[in-house]
Amino acid sequence: MKYISVFTMATFLMMTGCAGNTNTKTTDMDSMKNKNNPAYSRTDTAKVVLADDEWKKVLAPEVYHVARQKGTERPGTSIFEHSKEVGTYYCAVCGNALFKSNTKFESGCGWPSFYEPISKSSIIYTPDNSYGMKRTEVMCGRCKSHLGHVFEDGPPPTGLRYCINGVVLDFEKAQHAEEKYNTEQKPTDK
Predict the structure, then answer these.
(1) Exposed, middle or buried by CB within 10 Å (0-12, 13-18, 19+), for 92?
(2) Considering only CA atoms, which of 118, 117, 106, 115 is closest in space to residue 81?
(3) 20-174: CATH class
(4) Which of the following is catalytic: 18, 91, 143, 163?
(5) Which DSSP string do the residues of 93-141 spell out, in sequence order?
(6) What is the pLDDT of residues 120-168, one digit of tens each?
(7) Is the N or the C terminus of the chain less surrounded, counting Cβ atoms within 10 Å?
(8) How many CB atoms sit inside 10 A of residue 148's CB?
(9) Distance between the two ends of the chain, CA-based, in angstroms?
(10) 67 near 145, Cβ under 8 Å?
(11) Is 163 a catalytic residue?
């Protein structure tokens, strides 16, 4: 009987990994889909504070569930989990820069994993003792949206694994960003 309960607990922990609640939907978020969200900006660094009912109006249901209700998407469903594209990952809720693609690695946990945030201020850390586990929750440094958790089992140089829900990530390819920058810098001919 003791072996069955140990097996049951081990199975539960493996299935939940970084998880709490599960969500079965996946979403390909990009900045074009954030037109109705007045808080979304990749250039504004001011803190974003909106009432919960406002977030509910401007966010897709699956993004709202994870970001504002501290939910978790189902493991293995994120389009970003195995992505090798070069670029920057942003908060899908507010546009805050979170991770560079060169800090992403394959962890096998079922969610996109990174070993280092883009800056110290891009992430907020808070203790999470839910579900009988001791973990560290990571939230967006600009809008305080739930992103996932950080663990101390990542690769060098940091030894950290930021296990992030892909539904709250927005991605811009490096080449696209460079082209956009070059277009904006060229003077118009008259």
Answers:
(1) buried
(2) 106
(3) mainly beta
(4) 163
(5) TT--EEEEGGGEE--SSSS-EESS-SSGGGEEEEEE-GGG--EEEEEET
(6) 999 999 999 998 999 999 999 999 999 999 999 999 999 999 999 999 9
(7) C
(8) 28
(9) 82
(10) yes
(11) yes
